[in-house]
Design a protein that fits this description.
This protein has helices at 13-25, 28-35, 39-53, 69-93, 110-115, 117-127, 143-149, 194-199, 214-220, 238-243, 253-259, 291-322, and strands at residues 2-3, 6-7, 58-61, 64-67, 103-108, 132-137, 155-158, 167-175, 177-182, 201-205, 227-232, 248-252, 265-268, 277-284. With 323 residues, it is an alpha/beta fold. Strand 1 (2-3) and strand 2 form a beta hairpin. Helix content is 44%, strand content 22%. Helix 1 crosses helix 2 (28-35), helix 1 (13-25) packs across helix 4 (69-93) and helix 2 crosses helix 3 (39-53). The protein is built from 12 helices and 14 strands. Strands 6-5-7-14-8 form a 5-stranded mixed β-sheet. Strands 11-10-12-9-13 form a 5-stranded mixed β-sheet. The protein has a two-stranded antiparallel sheet with strand order 1-2. The termini are far apart. The protein is rod-shaped, with a radius of gyration of 30 Å.
Length: 323
């Protein structure tokens, strides 16, 4: 392989380190001391550099070695490149959040993006201010596997993907389902029973554009079916639509809380048993032992724990006020 006619196979990273030391010290002996090499080893490195770069690079002058124009031209970009390599190696071996300039990419489904991302961004700004965070959205649960396989994301947060040996997961939180109606809807004046539930027009949120959700599966086990009035993929559009219509929607409780529409809605328990929606943190097995990746996963988990504790506290205060 060659670039601009140069054989990169002949370039040893140690040669570039030697060049950088020679630029700094302008002496073969002092440059060797700087990087722990003997004088003969440094002289040999300079000879190889001259042959590879086809330039004298350094010539003797009255006050030590003097760089040629070619050496001066190379000095700054090579120094920058070595510094970047060093930062990269430090990022993968000994991770220091406060000084790291690394990058993380996180895949998020819609709900985790709304409820977790603001808290995570704030925490990263506090403890790792030089980190760059990239966010990628995904909809179908198994899209996470493709993103992690391809290295397009370091981690992903969403409902559990299909089980594979190479994708590891960690439970984060669960969301129970609630039914919502507009505040003054006649059906909201009493506990919701199954007959009243089935008599209403339903809004179905389906990020994967299916027309059969958790509620439909639970009803089908009883040989029942509901009437759909609207299906849409964006769950955070649902509370506002319900607040201005006669439809009922069965949504995750966290969506109702985070939508800003809770005061315009009546929240009721579903008349059928629905398993909560589970959200997990997923990552590829190849990232399991990586110090920076491990720190990032722990940081996410800590923010989720704080958020869940805050929600429980708010619910407890709300119940106390209504008693």
């Amino acid at each position: 392989m060659s670039i601009h006619g140069m054989d990169l196979h002949g370039i040893d990273l140690n040669l570039l380190v030697a060049f950088d030391a020679l630029m700094a010290e302008r002496s073969v002996t002092r440059a060797g001391t700087r990087i722990g090499r003997t004088q003969p080893a440094m002289s040999a490195a300079l000879s190889r550099l001259r042959a590879l770069l086809r330039d004298e690079l350094f010539v003797r002058g009255p006050s030590g070695l003097q760089p040629t124009p070619r050496a001066l031209e190379l000095a700054e970009p090579l120094s920058r490149a070595l510094a970047q390599i060093q930062r990269t190696l430090e990022f993968t071996q000994v991770f220091e959040p406060a000084s790291s300039t690394g990058t993380f990419t996180i895949g998020l489904q819609e709900h985790p993006a709304f409820v977790l991302l603001p808290r995570l961004v704030s925490a990263l700004r506090e403890v790792a201010p030089l980190i760059t965070l990239h966010v990628r959205g995904f909809t179908a649960r198994d899209d996470a596997i493709g993103m992690l396989d391809a290295g397009e994301a370091d981690v992903a947060i969403g409902v559990p993907p299909a089980s594979t040996d190479r994708i590891l997961t960690r439970p984060l939180f669960e969301e129970r389902f609630v039914c919502v109606l507009r505040k003054d809807h006649p059906a909201g004046r009493r506990p919701l029973d199954l007959e009243g539930f089935l008599a209403l027009s339903h809004l179905l949120v389906s990020p994967e554009n299916e027309r059969f959700g958790h509620v439909d599966a639970a009803l089908a086990k009883r040989g029942l079916k509901r009437r759909l009035g609207l299906t849409l993929p964006q769950m955070y559009a649902a509370p506002k639509l319900v607040a201005s219509s006669d439809m009922i929607a069965t949504l995750m409780e966290g969506v109702v809380e985070a939508s800003g529409m809770a005061d315009a809605l009546r929240v009721l328990s579903p008349p059928i048993e629905l398993a909560p929606a589970a959200f997990v943190l997923s990552w590829h097995r190849r990232n399991e032992g990586h110090p920076a990746q491990r720190w990032f996963r722990d940081c996410i988990a800590a923010q989720v724990l704080e958020q869940q504790e805050g929600r429980r506290g708010r619910k407890g205060s709300s119940r106390a006020r209504t008693q």
